[in-house]
Automatic annotation (TrEMBL):
Cofactor(s) required for function per UniProt: pyridoxal 5'-phosphate
Residue ranges occupied by any CBS domain in the UniProt entry: 342-398
UniProt xrefs under SMART domains: CBS
CDD domains to which the protein is assigned, alphabetical: CBS_like
InterPro entries tied to this protein: CBS_dom, CBS_dom_sf, Cys_Synth/Cystath_Beta-Synth, TrpB-like_PALP, TrpB-like_PALP_sf
The protein's name: Pyridoxal-phosphate dependent enzyme
Pfam families on file: CBS, PALP
Keywords of this entry: CBS domain, Pyridoxal phosphate
Database matches in PANTHER family: CYSTATHIONINE BETA-SYNTHASE
Length: 457
């Protein structure tokens, strides 16, 4: 690395190829199991490095109190790294963290202060402000600030990134990273893009997080509410660097949780919701990539911390996230309708396709409208009538990109959506409805599909 590397620990997390959940896509999809680190999270090497550096700098000595705010996993890593060395651990956490993480922190001997999850940045009750206040009022206290510590980015640039490069034999083309503070994705991007500038770095966040808005417009949008933990941001991180990130995609709570459950059943990968979100986004994108792509997905949290939540059927049902195994005979769902029709890969246009290319796709597949999809996410649609009206006004537009002429995207529904819900969507001037499958694929349903399903009832 040119300078002495302070990270002497061996942190090589296993990387496994997924053959079942990714069996329908052409690219190879690999999961890097960060949750197999000692703390069940990717924060273990970060916590170790922070304590090592602080001890080397004489900033801390055994007996002092290490203070931080945490969503749980970073605090567990800090406690595991610090308690055996003789440090006290004081953590401020939002009250929505899982019961298992809270119990683990108590078992480790950490002192936990709960704050309201809805406290916004700048409010006195916000966990960041409470942690900073505690440091200022306690003797012999040290603020580790794991989420915004420069060592957090450095670990991933000097350790995690090179390991991924070596494990993939330098063939990784797409990296999907759950985004919380921005330290991991920034560190990985800095290293990997030096090796190959064409590697696509895709951040994944929940619906309601702020990073997609930051990437698209540079502005901080109003944060929303989400159930996912260890992923997403309510305010921008100091590590955020839009120049290093190729895309930020959002995944719903339901999509993430069910993908994690599928990973456990299909691949014996026992990961948490942040990991499920990243895998769902990767599988959704992989449908639109060819066999030359090599996708790596970071599994950053352990499923063991969510047994009372996403791995609990009753909790999933209470929250409306539970995916039914089968529907009642008197209530046809999108999943039932897809079972009646012959399935084929979704025919979709990419934003960079020209109108001429899109029209040729319609002609070859005998369809009159197409969704426009970017990395598996519907961003618009286009129809024969729209192309015709464009050409009447400007016959030279055939070589223009379709992204400049898109109409509204088709509505997106879950496989559990009932036929009445689908029909309502189709009445809203939509010529089709896209169904998001558990493996990330999209399928299109039209009015004729609904009619055919009703005749089978």
């Amino acid at each position: 690395m040119g300078q002495q590397n302070i990270f002497s620990m061996e942190t090589l997390s296993p990387m496994v190829e997924l053959s079942r959940v990714a069996g329908h896509v052409q690219p190879a999809v690999f999961a890097r199991l960060e949750y197999l680190n000692p703390s069940g999270t990717h924060y273990w090497p970060v916590a170790t490095a922070i304590i090592d550096r602080a001890e080397a700098d004489k900033s801390i000595t055994p007996g002092m109190t290490l203070v931080d705010w945490s969503y749980g996993s970073s605090g567990i890593a800090l406690a595991m790294a610090g308690v055996p060395r003789g440090y006290k651990i004081l953590l401020v956490v939002p009250d929505r963290i899982s019961r298992e993480k809270h119990q683990m922190l108590k078992a480790l001997g950490a002192e936990v202060v709960m704050t309201p999850s809805d406290a916004l940045p700048g409010e006195p009750r916000n966990c960041v402000n409470v942690a900073e206040s505690l440091v200022g009022n306690l003797q012999n206290a040290y603020f580790t600030n794991m989420y915004e510590n420069s060592l957090s980015r450095q670990v991933h640039e000097e350790v995690t990134g090179p390991e991924i490069w070596e494990q993939s034999d330098g063939e990784v083309t797409h990296l999907f990273v759950p985004v919380t503070s921005g330290a991991m994705i920034t560190g990985l991007a800095r290293m990997l893009k030096q090796k190959n500038p064409d590697i696509r770095i895709i951040g994944v966040e929940p619906e309601g997080s702020v990073y997609r808005g930051l990437l698209q417009s540079g502005a901080v949008s109003q944060a929303g509410v989400f159930e996912l933990e260890e992923i997403g941001g309510l305010w921008p991180s100091g590590f955020w660097d839009a120049s290093l990130v190729d895309d930020i995609v959002q995944v719903s709570d339901q999509e993430a949780f069910n993908c994690s459950r599928d990973l456990l059943r299909s691949e014996a990968v026992f990961a948490g919701g942040a990991s499920g979100a990243a895998m769902f986004a990767a599988l959704r994108a992989a449908v639109h990539l060819d066999a030359s792509a090599r996708i790596v997905v970071l599994m950053t949290d352990s499923g063991g911390y969510y047994l009372s939540k996403m791995y609990n059927d009753e909790w999933m049902k209470q929250k409306g996230f539970f995916r039914k195994a089968a529907s009642q005979k008197d209530e046809i769902t999108a999943e039932d309708i897809l079972g009646y029709k012959t399935r084929r890969d979704l025919i979709a246009a990419m934003p960079e396709n020209t109108l001429s290319e899109v029209f040729e796709m319609m002609r070859q597949h005998d369809v009159s409208q197409l969704p426009v999809v970017s990395y598996g996410t519907p961003i618009g649609s286009v129809s024969e009538n729209k192309i015709l009206s464009i050409l009447i006004e400007n016959d030279e537009a055939m070589n223009s990109k379709v992204v400049g002429y898109m109409e509204q995207p088709f509505p997106v529904c879950q496989p559990s959506a009932t036929i009445s819900e689908l029909s309502e969507k189709l009445q809203e001037n939509a010529s089709g409805v896209l169904i998001t499958l558990s493996d990330g694929r999209l399928q299109l349903l039209t009015k004729s599909d609904l009619i055919e399903a009703l005749t089978h009832k």
